User: What shape does this take?
Amino acid sequence: MRMIFTKLVRLVVVLFVVTFLSFWFIKLIGGNNDLVAKMIPFASIEEKERVREEIGLNKPFFVQYRNWIGNFVTGDLGQIYTGSGANVASVPVSETIVKRLPVSLELMLYAQLLALAIAIPLGVFTAYRAGSKFDRGSNMAAFGLLALPQFVVALLLATYVGAKWQLLPTQANVDPFPLSPADNWQYMLMPIISLALAQIAIYTRLLRSDMIATLQEDFITTAKAKGIPAKRVLFRHALRPSSLTLLTVAGLNVGALIGGAVVIERIFQVPGIGGLLAASILSQQYLLTQSLVVLIAIFYILLNFFVDILYSVLDPRIRHARAVA
Amino acid sequence: MPAPSHNSGDDIVQSLVADKSHDSAVDEPMLYFAAVTDGPEIANIGKKRKGLGVGAWLSIIWLALLLTSSFAAPFLPIPDPINDVELPRSGGGKAVVIATPPSLDHLFGLDGSGHDVLSRVIWGARNSLLIGIVSVGLGLLVGGVLGNIAGYFKGKIGGFIGSVLDILLAFPQLILALFVVTVLGHTVANVTFALAIVSTPVLARIARASALSWSEREFVLAARAQGATHRRVIWREVLPNVLPAMFSIALLGIAVVIVAEAGLAIIGAGVKPEVVTWGNIIVGGQGELRGAAHIVLAPSLIIFLTVLSLNFLGDVVRARSDVRDSAL
Amino acid sequence: MRKSKKSADAAARFETEPAEGPLLQVVDLHTHFHTGRGVARAVDGVTLSLERGQTLGVVGESGSGKTVLARSIMGLLPKSNVERTGSILFEGREIIDASNDELRALWGSQMSMVFQDPMTSLNPVMKIGNQITEMILQHLDVSKKYAGELALAQLKAVGIPEAERRLKEYPHQMSGGMRQRIMIAIAIACGPKLLFADEPTTALDVTVQAQILDLLEEQQRERFMAMILVTHDLGVVAGRADEIVVMYAGRIVEKAPTGLLFSDMRHPYTEALLRSIPKLSAPSHSLLQAIGGRPPDIVNPPTGCKFSPRCPYVHEKCTQEEPPLVDATSPDHQFRCWTPVGTPENRAALEANRAAGLESALAVVEDVLPAGVSTATETLPQVTTSHLRGGTINPKGSV
Ligand SMILES: Nc1ncnc2c1ncn2[C@@H]1O[C@H](COP(=O)(O)OP(=O)(O)OP(=O)(O)O)[C@@H](O)[C@H]1O
Ligand code: SF4
Ligand SMILES: [Mg+2]
Assistant: This one.
């Protein structure tokens, strides 16, 4: 309990640091007045002034930060301003994010599930049969996959599966994008495969080397000597103690994919968070950038928290060591 | 380092906790590199006892070929990648296809504007390799120094550098690069700079881990006990041992950066389109996947082979100096 | 469900009525590892047999091949680069060529093993209870609940206090001695006919060692299990084994019923082992240094008698020709030496070696020399077992 409490305190501190830094950094880049000029360069002077007023750019820095945090906590992430002359319109940032987040989550989740579903049995089996022909073949394939950039996979898929054979649509920029996996799977399948492929290679190799180490352990011989089937020895006895590294990397990937799948999102025109973030920077909508960066940071931190808890679930020694500490 | 004793289960717990449960964000780059350079099987491909092995030689030959041809691009008998345009003669009422597929005249075919794709790939290699090598070189210089300092002086300095690195690593790397390029402008120099910024914390982390483990070794402790200055110990004892690890990782890093350049180009944050880079060639061909896939596939293949060679060599260097056991 | 079709087929091989005769018969067993340096003959022509309910002690210093022998018999060796030849009859049925699937029907239920290091032999991420019940469920056709009760009974039988609570705990929450008790509970849970105990006390505190050995003995007697007790300490097996096999470099150098071995010891290596029984104060591994010289390299063993580089009685013939395993006064006592301990030739060789300044010969201390064989053997085992039992005199110590 105390452990969770200290962790929570740390979490809050880190969140403050992250929000402050990103707020300050973007102010620094944008410059107070410039920020609006960059967002709506073709708006009339009066409109720009109005927007400045609305955002509160005229106030002192710390007041701005406080207001921003206050709004952020209540779910008001600010507005996206577009338009020219006197016609400046605004859309709430939260509205856009709410539309995009499920897409990114789906992309990330399925890519991870696919990668793990293939990598876990493959890693376990190649470790079990380390040195066999199959193991060597799989190792080489994995090494090749690691050298295959995700965008190359994506472009290959887009070229053949999409353009040449026309099995799946390559452009997902349909509006509104169907949020239910049952309706959007044909848009998501290729992006998911593109993201998962390299991860299969990474996961398989990491799990394999950890498994090989575990399979040398005495308790594996004990399990074998108990007469339980090989499959159970591998999956019930060896897999769990071998999966901590895999868990770490998978956790990191989940974090990285939520905002980092930009290239794949772009190639397949998937409306995800990564693409939104890139677009916000390219079109200098820094208010949007700010909110997204903070959201991603929060996601990252929560994820770390979650992975930490998973460690304890997987390994009772960690659980108890922490309870004592 | 205390010898592991079999009857102290607490030691195991301690090391486990220390290994796995500290801020997990920390290890991402290292785990990536661990995944690439894992196990001796790959480094040993085609290898008979000592010597480098067929795989390593093939990698070296490929990279050498790439480097020399990109250096010598202006003197090679290839069309200019920007000014030379070949437009096919229109034949009897048929639609004119400009982006013709590979032929004997044009090994990689022509692109949509009639440029020779092979020539563009060779000229593109100049920029892409330049970006890769220079940015990793910069990252290695800055990150190596920071990492070694952080790893060697464990206390406050190390902690501070460590947390700065953590924060930098928490951002999606490509987004960070995109941000820098957008602010500074789409030139080769700026893209290089942006990617150097992104790779610095990664390389620093690895250098730090490596330096940490080496600075605990007996001979380093012995040197310090004998009253050697910090500078001397870092320079003479720690650095020489960290360097092979760094070199191995630099090779993998160049591969990552080459891919990142193309990634930036695809999301519209790369070097401006007039400059020929591998990324820009791909972006140029993206619209013609259906009719002229070769425009995209040719540079993709070259990138794949280059990354493969770099990874392979990195693995060989790693296996030879056996840095993974100590550093990762 | 519990038993897949495959393992049922495999088990069929062992469902025929067990034949008459000894429980285990090993004939000319060789286990060779193909290593980078060459062939390591870890077990090199071992023949032995074991009756139901009996205890066989296997003694030898580190690296003599005891563990490999035990694992070879059970079929628990790694698959790659290993060559196993000879014959292993378990209840009269050949098991040396049995596949893992076939052996699985025997492992745990017919024969099982207690390992050397209890700190590493239990799965660290699995509850104790599950580690026991999983095996019970594998071999016995019982309900989960009943398996749980059986597990509890086992824990109580091996003397674990608060057994109910312990079932739900993990190995790291227990001491080494307790973990070894749990290992024993696991090994005997399905009532095996043969138990291998591979140095079950080496990794434990001296005070716990005797308790664990007593526990093994008690359980063995209660369940009429046969046991192969592997150790490097003659003192451990002296009061416990019915028969003792002394191993050196993968070979049996002396084999005899326990009493006979101590009263009529023939091999110089056995003698050296006896002389090196640790004192109470010494740490448990110190005896390994007590015999001068190093254990032989099993990849490139010395020619002739493998003990010759370290033997105080070595003479010319020893380095040229390896002695065969021959019968002593009775056929159940065998040894492998040209000039066995206690013979005049042996004495002469020692004198000659002393005169030549051979280190191993000079190291031989007169008072334990077999000149007074009978006195030495009568007292020594007693002394050693009593120290293991924390000072109480053990009636069995007299052998
Ligand atoms: N998998 C293997 N590959 C190669 N050599 C092996 C292997 N396992 C054991 N050996 C060798 O076989 C020999 C006998 O080993 P073993 O473990 O049986 O000794 P031991 O008598 O049990 O010693 P200890 O008292 O230390 O447990 C040793 O020289 C060892 O190096
Ligand atoms: S006397 Fe000779 S044969 Fe006997 S053990 Fe010594 S060396 Fe070997
Ligand atoms: Mg052993």
Observations:
- Residues 1-7, 285-289, 367-399 of chain C have pLDDT under 50 and may be disordered.
- The radius of gyration of chain C is 22 Å.
- The interface with chain A takes residues 4, 7, 74, 76, 80, 100, 103-109, 112-113, 115, 117, 120-126, 134-135, 138-139, 170, 172-173, 183, 186 of chain C (CB under 8 Å).
